[in-house]
Amino acid sequence: MKKMWKIGFIFLMVLLTGCKKKENEPTKIVSGMKAIEQSDYETAVGNFEAAIATGEDLEAAYRGLGMAYLGQTDYDKAVECFELALQQAGGKVGTMEYDISYYLAVAEYKRGAIDNAIQIYTSIIALDKKNPSAYFLRGAMELEKGEYEAAIKDFNEAITRDEKNDELYIDIFQRLKEFGYVDGGKEYLNKALGIEGFNNYQKGRLYYFLQDYENARNFLETARSEGKEEPDIILYLGKTYEDLGGEKNLEYAISLYRSYLEKNPKDEEIYNQMGLCQMGLRDYEGALGTFQAALAIEGNTMTQNLKFHEIVAYEYMSDFKNAAALMEEYIRTYPDDEAAKREYIFLKTR
Questions:
Q1: 53: Cβ–Cβ under 8 A, 6 or more apart, which residues?
Q2: In terms of Cα–Cα distance, which of 203, 240, 243, 197 is closest to 219?
Q3: Cα–Cα dist 6/318, whole Å
Q4: Residue 223 contacts residue 236 (beta carbons within 8 Å)
Q5: How far apart are CA 141 and CA 130, in angstroms?
Q6: What is the C-alpha separation between 334 and 329, in angstroms, rounded?
Q7: How far apart are CA 304 and CA 68, in angstroms?
Q8: What is the sign, positive or negative, of the torsion defined by CA atoms of 39, 45, 50, 52?
Q9: Residue 236 burial (C-beta neighbours within 10 Å; 0-12, 13-18, 19+)
Q10: What is the three-class DSSP state of 238?
Q11: Does the first or last residue of the chain, that is N or C, have fewer Cβ atoms within 10 Å of its Cβ?
Q12: Rounded to whole angstroms, how far apart are CA atoms 343 and 346?
């Protein structure tokens, strides 16, 4: 479900080309979207409310306001805003309306209305029977309800419509694994490995999730030797060495991440993984610096994870004062993180 957050930002460039009040002056909608990217949901709410008050683009404005409330974990208001956004469409159904519907389903799920989420995905399927994402997401909701057979049927429907998408097989595996169906999930990974056309990177990643790290390493190293210094290859190759275990493998993983970052200094995901690897080597000070370097990247999309890992680094350094102060701020920003709340109680006692 985390991936649903990424869907909306695909449409940010569309919003950027909207009407402007003054030349070179961003609209309130654009400012609101930028605030959401930075997890500044309070500012985002103010911008979208101002856009609605001036009639800037009501469908986009209500959509953005719903996203901001979703970030604030106010799911009832988020549902209300997404419904208002859809009302502005005037009956037309296009890319924006599908996007809003996906967000509405997430908000319904988050407030515990799983049946409502399922109905939304069913409505999307009725309008677009070839949509693999809607089948997958409806299957994910059915698993939440314990409806395993229905979920498998929808997962299979998704694959029928997107058979050559290795990401889909991995998503299904992870979802089934989450609910204890590991063997069933592995069947999908093995099925994917039997399909012709996947490249060395894709095969390596499938083996990684199968926990066959030897094969994963071999395919990913081959992909890298083909001259593809792409972030996903480096990320999964590094993670493979981490999971192979041993200090030398951890050090080699860090060298992969560091070498990549020298040429690509704005990749927050690689920074995050390198920091975790440094934590594994008990280099907490080095990990802290890595997480903070990633947080300094403008517009990074991993702010929540990075802030949490920064706190953990301080905690392992026995700097409980800084850890507690940052955790207090973190909980204000991400109030639905129950694990963080429990950790904060511990930190306050140190």
A1: none
A2: 203
A3: 35
A4: no
A5: 19
A6: 9
A7: 15
A8: positive
A9: buried
A10: helix
A11: C
A12: 5
* Confidence band of 347 (pLDDT split at 50, 70, 90): low
Look at residue 39 and tell me whether its pLDDT is greater than 90.
no
Name the residue type at position 271. Answer: Y
State residue 49's pLDDT score.
Answer: 97
Contact predicate 107/82, CB 8 Å: yes
Q: What share of the chain is helix, strand, coil (3-state, %, to 5)?
A: 75, 0, 25
Return the beta strands (E) in the chain as ranges. none
Question: Could you read off the pLDDT of 89-127 as tens digits, one per residue?
Answer: 988 889 999 999 999 999 999 999 999 999 999 999 999
Q: What is the pLDDT of residue 25?
A: 60
Side chain identity at 122, as an amino acid letter? T
Hey, what amino acid is at 5?
Answer: W
Neighbours of 248 (CB within 10 A): 10
Q: What is the mean pLDDT of residues 260-270?
A: 94
Q: Confirm if 31 and 57 have CB atoms less than 8 A apart.
A: no
Give the torsion through C-alpha atoms of 113, 118, 123, 125, to 10 deg.
160
Which DSSP string corresponds to 318-342?
A: T-HHHHHHHHHHHHHH-TT-HHHHH
Q: Number of H helices and number of E strands within the chain?
A: 21, 0
The alpha carbon of residue 173 and the mean position of all alpha carbons in its chain are separated, in whole angstroms, by 16
Alpha-carbon torsion (300, 304, 306, 310), positive or negative: positive
Angle between helices 284-295 and 268-280 (to 10 degrees): 170
Q: Is the pLDDT of residue 69 over 50?
A: yes
Give the separation between CA 189 and CA 209, rounded to whole angstroms: 8
Angle of CA points 301, 303, 309, to nearest 5°: 130
Q: List, in order, residues 6 or more apart from 74 with CB less than 8 Å away.
A: none
Q: Which token pair is 274?
A: 């390198």
Helices 338-348, 303-316: crossing angle, 10 deg rounding: 30
